[in-house]
Write a structure and sequence with these properties.
The chain is built from 2 helices and 2 strands, in the order H-E-E-H. The chain is mostly helical. It is elongated and about 85 Å long.
């Protein structure tokens, strides 16, 4: 029931918005004569373009983070399969002990 009420209220608001902004405006582009378009369409297109830019950006950011996580897992798996490095790569401690390598 709440969903129906919200849908009716949203539809009434949208129709009222469209009716109050239905006059034509001139949209000047870089080249050529100004294009005449209804203000409501211009506002709606601007709104949807403005909403799609952050959505696209967050999708790309999420995909890159996912790729980094996969790459890090692969590297960790390779390191665990390779085993520890040989002792010749580790510098010796001044007193001959190896306690610092734990």
């Amino acid at each position: 029931m709440l969903r129906l009420v919200l849908t009716v209220v949203g539809t009434i608001a949208l129709v009222t918005f469209a009716m109050s902004n239905s006059h034509h405006v001139g949209l000047s582009v870089v080249l050529g004569a100004p294009v005449r378009i209804r203000l409501v369409f211009l506002l709606l297109v601007t709104f949807f373009v403005g909403m799609s830019i952050p959505l696209f950006y967050s999708t790309v950011k999420h995909m890159r983070a996912s790729q980094r996580r996969k790459r890090a897992k692969k590297m960790a798996a390779k390191r665990s399969q390779a085993g520890p490095p040989p002792d010749s790569l580790w510098p010796e401690e001044p007193h001959g002990g190896t306690a610092w390598r734990r």
